[in-house]
Structure formats: structure tokens, C-alpha cells
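Hi all, posting the design record for the shared folder.

TITLE: backbone redesign
STEP: 1 of 1
STRUCTURE INPUT:
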């Protein structure tokens, strides 16, 4: 044997060497088997080494918060989670903190449509990391990057969940964080059920007060001036079962039968290209109804705010929400809202400016991809139709609801309250 072959031969496990003697052309076969064995062994050793580095870097040592603040999330994506990451980053900047950003949009296959507003952290910068990604993405990101960004930094997970009980599969992600923040008390309660005692879970709602307040521009969207415009918006990536647009469509159609006032329902749909069959079914349901318009064009956050400002009523008959960004944005923009009276949105929808729809809690079903167990709300469509019809008909009442939005004291709309909450959670000074 040549020396390389002999070296491989000697490294083979004894059972393989013994078996090779029994076959014709044993040296060649042994060399091939040895090569395969060495490759497998090398890959296994590399994987174990990578896992060891990841565990070493991500092991939580409860480090004190320090600067800068690095926000990891989908900064470049037109997506609710992307907007959440961008808002948090703006909130930290408003608090006078140096902000860094890491965009994971491409990491999860999302197109990058928005330029990241903050630079990435420097090589020698440590500080604190806020990962605005849920546990499945966090676990994958930490594994594939070997936890390089988490080493030597305090790590806070910002997680959102829409049901009363968080998935048990999320539990391993607690090993990667020092604490967890959530956009709502509802989400925090769900996560505390599976959090280990060492991990504190605290709500920090989004700083909506930072959002601009554009005036209405109906011409931009070709909306009639003499018609009450009702807006509903949903992302099919968040599942049609949870967002429940069909119930809102039926409630609007029923409300139209109860009033002679001209009304238009604008359905802003995101993700239609990813779920063409779902969108086609939705389009078929409203085909031929001139009072319902589907809108699937991609809008920036600024244009979405303009569309909301150009509407009269914001409607959502969701089954559950981890925060309810569109509804919160509507209240900040001075718009009356009508929504299912369950889950996180009830924390900021006060009865002075909003209408809550009656509901019944039912078992989760038909959405096994994300939501596999538990319960969520089925909105009472008759109640929604009655309330919506009155909102369409009664201009004075609608104006009264709109005026009351300015008195909403939720922390999302109060700069001083939000900054004080942040200072308590992140005592950097």
C-alpha cells in the first residue's frame, strides 16, 4: 500500500478493516470506505466544535446593560415584525441611546425593501442586544452564526405571541436570553407560563408616539370624498385564519344592508403573491361588489399611515392579536376603531374612542402551521354589523369617537410614560 492508503487503513475502525479482507479488491474498497469514514468523522467533529462555540458564546451570564443598543430584526422588510423592530430602534434613539441594527430579512427569505436606518455594531462594541425575532428564528440564527453577536453582551428577546399559551417548542430559546420583553401584557402572560424562574418577562409596548400624523389624501388612493371609507388590513403571512378577513367582509356587507349611507370597504392585503390561492378565494368572494376594494400594492410605512389617515373607520375581526399594530396606529392617527374584544388590542382600545365586538372563545383549528392548540375568539358578526352600521350612519358619534383618541393614555401613545418604562427596564445610566 502507498503511505496515504496505509494511513487511512490504520485509522479505520477494526470491524471495517476485518470486513475489507473478505472482499475482492480489498485495498481499493478499504480506501474508499476509509475516505467516507474520515469525511463523516471530520464533519461530526466540526459540528460538535461549532455547537460548543455556540453554547459558550450564548451561555447567559446576566451581564449588566451597556451601550450601544443593537436591535436585531427584519429592518428591511415590509412586515409587521419589521415595523416593530424599526419602531423599537427609533424609541431607543429617542431616549438618547446609541443604536445599532442587524437586518435579518434575507436570512428568513424576506425581500429587502427598506434601507436600514442604523449601522451594524462595531467589532469591539458590546452593549446590549435586543433580538426582535421570535424563538424559532432566534434558535436558527444563533445556531447558524454560532452565537457570535450574543457573546459578551446582555441579550433581551422581544417576543410576541397571540394565544393564551405559548408553544412548548419555544422553551429552549430561554437559554439564549437574559430576559424577555413583549409588546403586550397578554403576550407576557402567555410566555411566563413556560419561562424558567431566572428569566423575567415584561411588557414594553411599541412607541407609537413616534409615528408621523399625516393628513388625509384620498386622491392618492382614488377614494371617493362623499363615502364613508372603512379600512381593514392583514398580512397573509400572519395566516388568514388568525386575521379572519372573511368575518369582516360578511360584517361589512351586513352593515351595508342596515344603512343607506354610501360606504366603501378597502381591504389592504399583504402577502398575496406568497399565498395566491388564498388571495384568489378572497377575490372571488368579493367579485362583483363595488362597495369592496382589494388593494395589494406594496405600501411603505408612510403610505400605510396615509391610507389609514384617509379612512373613516378601522375594522378588524381578528381571532387573536399579540399587539394589534394597525389598530394602535389608527388610534394614534385619530381614527375610530371596531375590533374583536379579545387579546392584546383591548389593552389600548378604550371605550371612549373604540368599539369592541362581542365574541366567543373557540378551539384553534385549521391553522396547524403556526397555531396548533389552545383557543381564540370568534367575533360575533351580527354585533359587529350593528356597531359598524351605526358608525357609518352617525357622523356626530363617529366624530366624538375620533376626538376621544387624543385622550387615550396608553403607554404606546405617551412619550414620557414610554421613556420612563424603558429607563426602568434598561438602567444604563
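Okay, here is what came back for every position:
SEQUENCE:
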Amino acid at each position: 500500500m502507498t503511505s496515504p492508503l496505509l494511513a487511512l487503513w490504520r485509522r479505520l475502525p477494526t470491524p471495517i478493516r476485518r470486513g475489507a479482507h473478505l472482499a475482492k479488491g480489498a485495498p481499493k474498497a478499504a480506501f474508499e470506505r476509509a475516505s467516507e469514514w474520515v469525511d463523516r468523522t471530520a464533519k461530526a467533529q466540526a459540528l460538535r466544535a461549532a455547537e460548543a462555540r455556540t453554547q459558550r458564546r450564548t451561555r447567559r451570564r446576566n451581564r449588566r446593560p451597556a451601550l450601544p443598543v443593537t436591535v436585531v430584526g427584519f429592518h428591511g422588510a415590509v412586515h409587521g415584525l419589521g415595523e416593530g423592530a424599526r419602531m423599537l430602534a427609533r424609541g431607543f434613539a429617542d431616549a438618547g441611546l446609541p443604536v445599532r441594527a442587524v437586518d435579518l430579512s434575507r436570512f428568513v427569505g424576506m425581500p429587502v425593501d427598506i434601507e436600514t436606518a442604523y449601522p451594524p455594531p462595531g467589532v469591539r462594541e458590546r452593549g446590549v442586544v435586543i433580538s426582535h425575532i421570535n424563538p424559532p428564528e432566534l434558535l436558527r440564527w444563533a445556531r447558524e452564526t454560532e452565537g457570535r453577536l450574543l457573546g459578551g453582551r446582555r441579550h433581551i428577546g422581544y417576543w410576541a405571541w397571540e394565544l393564551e399559551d405559548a408553544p412548548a417548542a419555544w422553551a429552549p430559546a430561554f437559554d439564549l436570553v437574559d430576559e424577555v420583553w413583549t409588546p403586550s401584557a397578554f403576550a407576557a402572560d402567555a410566555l411566563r407560563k413556560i419561562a424558567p424562574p431566572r428569566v423575567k418577562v415584561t411588557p414594553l409596548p411599541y412607541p407609537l408616539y413616534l409615528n408621523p400624523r399625516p393628513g388625509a389624501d384620498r386622491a392618492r388612493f382614488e377614494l371617493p370624498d362623499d363615502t364613508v371609507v372603512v379600512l381593514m388590513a392583514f398580512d397573509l403571512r400572519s395566516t388568514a385564519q388568525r386575521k379572519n378577513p372573511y368575518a369582516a367582509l360578511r360584517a361589512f356587507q351586513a352593515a351595508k344592508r342596515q344603512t343607506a349611507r354610501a360606504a366603501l370597504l378597502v381591504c389592504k392585503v399583504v402577502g398575496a403573491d406568497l399565498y395566491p390561492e388564498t388571495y384568489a378565494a378572497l377575490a372571488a368572494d368579493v367579485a362583483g361588489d363595488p362597495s369592496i376594494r382589494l388593494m395589494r400594492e406594496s405600501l411603505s410605512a408612510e403610505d400605510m399611515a396615509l391610507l389609514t389617515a384617509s379612512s373613516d373607520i378601522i375594522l378588524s375581526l381578528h381571532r387573536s392579536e399579540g399587539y394589534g399594530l394597525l389598530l394602535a396606529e389608527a388610534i394614534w392617527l385619530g381614527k375610530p376603531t371596531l375590533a374583536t374584544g379579545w387579546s392584546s388590542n383591548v389593552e389600548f382600545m378604550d371605550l371612549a374612542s373604540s368599539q369592541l365586538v362581542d365574541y366567543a372563545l373557540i378551539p384553534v383549528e385549521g391553522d396547524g402551521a403556526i397555531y396548533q392548540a389552545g383557543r381564540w375568539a370568534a367575533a360575533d358578526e351580527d354585533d359587529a354589523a350593528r356597531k359598524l352600521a351605526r358608525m357609518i350612519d352617525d357622523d356626530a358619534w363617529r366624530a366624538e369617537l375620533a376626538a376621544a383618541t387624543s385622550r387615550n393614555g396608553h403607554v404606546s401613545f405617551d412619550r414620557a410614560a414610554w421613556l420612563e418604562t424603558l429607563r426602568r427596564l434598561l438602567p444604563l445610566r
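COMMENT: Residues 157 and 180 are 5 Å apart (CA to CA).
Let me know if anyone wants the other runs.
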